[in-house]
Structures are given as C-alpha cells and as structure tokens.
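TL;DR need structure tokens for one chain.
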Amino acid sequence: MALIWVTAILHVSGVADARKGFSDTWRVSGDWYSAENARLDTWNEKRLIGDRGEGVLINGRIGKTQSLVTKRRDYQDVEVHVEFMIAKRSNSGIIFHGNYEIQILDSAHVKEPTGAHCGGVYPRAEEKPKYHHIDKGSPPRVNAAGKPGEWQTMDIVFQSPRFDENGVKTANARFVKVVHNGQVVQENVEVPYACGPNWNRKQHPRGPVIIQGDYGPIAIRNVRVRDWQGANASVAKKLNVPPPGFTALFNGKDFSGFNVNPKVEKMWSIEAGVLKSHGLLEEWGADLVTKKTYKDFVLLVDFRMPMDSDSGIHFRKLISKMGYFGQTEQMNIGTGHRMGQLESIGFMRANKLEAAKRLKDSDIPRVKQVDPEIGQWHTVKITMVGRTLSAELDGQVMIDRYDYPPWLLSTEAEQLRFQKHRYLENTATGKKNPCPIEFRNIFIKEIEPRALNVPPEGFTALFNGKDLTGWHTPPLVKEYWSIENGVLKSPGLIEQWGASLSTKKHYTDFILMLEFRMPTISDSGISFRRLIPEIPGFGDMEQFNLRSRGGMGHLESYYFLPTETARKMELKDQDKPHVRYIDPEVGVWHTVKLTMKGRTFSAEYDGEVLLDKFEYHDWMMNTEPAPIRLQKHIVVHGDNLGKENPCPIEYRNIFIKELKSSK
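>> reply
TL;DR here they are.
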C-alpha cells in the first residue's frame, strides 16, 4: 500500500527533551524513554534495551507502563503507519477510539494465526469464569509477523462507524486495509463491536489513536497518523462550502464580508475560488479584514505558499502596549520556524518591551515546530475560547490549550485579519521576497460563552462559584481555600490533614461531574461512600485519585487494602479495578465524570472511559449515604511529585445528579 505522508506525529528530538517533544501530540507518561536503537536483551530475550539517544521510543525496562494516546481525540477515518519491535512473547496493539484493535504479538512461529495473533482484528472476549474469546475476530490472511528483535511495519486504514442525527449507528466500523511487513493481512473487514472484553461498550464516531504499552516490551519509531479522505473520494469537494455548524467568511466570488481599500483591491485577486496575493507590497495596509468582530470561535483556513513566505492570522486585541507591532494578536503562517508562533510574545521579548518583564515561564506558549511544505495546500485550525488558544496544522497539534496571561489578551470581540506581508529583503543579496500567499475554505464557528458553575439540565451545582454554601467550613478549610473568578483554589502548603472540602448533604447513588486543574504536578482526590473494612492510615471513605504522575483513576480502597484482609476475602487480582493510567497535563482543565449506583462504579476522564461498570465486593463498599469530599492533600516530601510539593489543586463546575436508589 503506497502512502504519501504529510504529517509525522511521532518524533524524538534529542535525549533530554525527547519525551517532551513527543508529548506535544501524544499523552505520554510512565516508563517510556528515548533511544537511538533497540534490540533484544541478550541476557533476557523477553526484554528490549536501547542506547540512550533519539529516533526510537521504548516502553521501559519490563514493558508494563501507560499506553500512548493521541492528544487529539476527534480522529474519524484515519491512516496509521508504525514501525515496531517486540521482545519474545510480547504483546501490544494499535487501538482506534479505544474500541477497535489490530493486534501486535510475538507470533512468527504460529502456523495458523487467529485474530489474537499479529495483524489480526482482536476477538471479543469475556473475563469470567476465566478470560476467553467469544468469537474469532478476524485472523490475518497470512502470517507476516517478524521474529522478536526485528523491526516490523504496520500500515492501517481505519474507517469509523457512522451515526445518524439521533445517535443511531448506521454503519459499522471497518478496517479498510491493513498491511503488515508489506503483505495485506486485512481488507474491508467490518467490526460491529468493540474488541476484547469490553465488546459491548458504547461506540463513537470519533476518538483517539492508542498504542498499547502495558502488555510487554515494545519499541516504536516513525509513527505517522493522518486523516483518511478515501471515504469521501467519490464526492468532489466543493470549495468554500462550509461544514455543518460553520459559516463561510469567503464566498469564493468576491470580497463580501471584508473591508476593501485601494491596497486590498490592488494586491488581492480571486481565481477559481481562491484568494491570491502574489505581488510585492512596499508598505503595510493590504491585509484582508473582516467587517464583523469575533470573540470565541473555531476558525478553519486552507492556505498555500507558492514559495518561501510569511503571513499570519490576526485576532483579539492586546492589552499591553506593543508599539509598532500593533494591538492585535497574530498567529504566524510561514515557512521554517515561523509557523504557529504567537507573535505578541516573541515581539515583546525580542524588543525588550516593558510588558516582557511580567512574563513568567508558564506564560510562554509551547509551540510545536512544523514547516509547511511549499506549493501544497495546508489547513490550519484555531480555537479561541476565553483566553485559551489551541491550534492545529493538518490535524497536528501545534499549540495545546495555551492560557494567555490576563494582562496581555483582551476577551472582547475583534475583527479577524488575514495578513498580506510587506516584502522581506535578503540583506546579503538585496533580493526582495514578495511573500506570496493564497487562502480558500475560510470557515468560522462562533462559540457561545459558557457560564461557569451553571449546571446542565437534570444536575445540581454543588459549588455556586461565589462562596462555600453547602460545604462544611472548619478553620483549616477557610484558611487553605479561596474562590477566584468562580474557581475553587487551594495552592498553599499544609502539614496536617483536615482541609478537605466536604458537602453537608450525603449522597448514595449519583452522577458527579467536575473540572479540575493542577497548576503544577500534584495529588488530590474525590471521596465518596463509606468503606466496610478497616484500612489503617487511609480513612473510611472510598477515593478516586487525581494525581499528576502514576495514579490517575486509582480506587484507593483496593490499592491500600491490607494484605491480610485481601487474603481473608480471597481477593484475586482479576477482581480488582484495573485502570489504564493517564497522567493529567498540568496547567490545563480536565473533566471527570463518576457514576455510582448500588455497588457499580464507572469513571470517565476527559470523555475517555477509565472504569466501565466495576462491581465493588459487598464486603468492601457500604451502600449508605455519605458526603462528597474534595481532597486537599498535605505536603508531599519526595515521592515522584518532587522534594517538597504543596499539591495545589483547583476545581470548578461541580455538578451532581442523584439517581434513584438501587435498593
């Protein structure tokens, strides 16, 4: 299968910062490390080792760590290319939407592979009375698997399920083609259900791409992902026709909706539905400016640069005085290192403006460097909500939820401006670059601002955004919690327990939704329901853990349960709650949804299922009402959270819906 890849989303760029660069597009944590190569451990062929360097990512010493998940969670139809190496008896997989898996397994020696072998569509399964498959999945056509320690390739084209406007599925998911080591192993295979033991879980039209890292050693390199347009190839794409929910800023015919002056008329033309500006501009003043102003929005724009060039998209007013730069923010569109840069901050730092003195390290946006190919059409997506900005190029995340300092960016509506750059002169040769630029498919969706702490229909707000009505307020709570702009904050260091927030009302069965943010790496949790067994040093309530490193989603009762109690109750490992841990990114808001009914518990994090209908043992969980408690953790000394960590935590939008008791 021949693929021409536009977007590479796995790269390793130096030993020290490799995982950081990789994390620009993937949520990566745990034991993954960067290496310049990978090979079998000669002392133990069930392990992989590599020399520290760049180009390869290995999932730790024993191969049992968190899986890799794309930050982008709205992939629909998608192509994936991955090169991988596994150890002897190792197991991994490439999973789409958390539901549909192409298996990776040490199976070169297998004569008649099944769906559970390398290149297979993994079968449905049940976990009781012991783990077993309930169908065949889809075995690979041929066994193309390489031996442990050999580099292998997997190319996958996946088409997502389709749903009508009422959410009813109208078409199953499908593996259009899977090529393993150059051989077609799957083609046009429908997948009616999710794979594995959660085969009856809910299916969605969009979701992330996942590479398993918790079932054995695997090394990966040259991982590439892009949207697949093949499903729509038979339908000619019409230019400047907005997708559902969007409005076209450019109609493909004239300058309706834009302010037009003599320079605009001279420097811009419209040809076959494309806005073009190829001429050399001596002085500024030919930017295309919308007549309408926009506040919160999603903007989609196609652009093409016929040669090395520079342009940009302006939005929102800047509060700080910026001199000759101007008073609107600009995201750069250009070749080389320029693409995606937020010019306000770069300008104030380069020119040593007074405002630059106010910048903290956390105020500097982390922009993934991408160099757009000259002569090709590219799509940029800008999402601006409040003071939070995200940006993508060709589906690749460049800026992930950057929060502007409140003193820098206004939240008032402002016109959008598409820049025609004045010429750039090569000081060595004196040659002038006219900075040609072309635009098409300019679409916008305005986002209505969401009021904080206003519950959705059927829910009640536990926090009103103003005070601690409905919560117990002992002295330590009053001392260590504050309310700022509708957000509950507790940044301080406390040496003793007693500052957690507890509701006055008690709850039995409920759905709890809340948003949390950790300004730095931290530890907190949500407590509910009383526990039956005594767990020394832990307390008498269950806790769903919120932790920056290595513990997100833990149910702490099972984690801290004394060994003798577990032995007495004949607790088996497969009966414990098993969570695929995700380390929440610091500095950004995350959403948690907990559902407790009877002794059945489910949990979601940022829309992804962490626990699906886990059944508590009747000797573990009390079914009587109990308060909801938001933990303020005491200072942590050591551990993987740092030498002395005050565990800062923030909450907002805390909503609850009481369910009819299952008694």
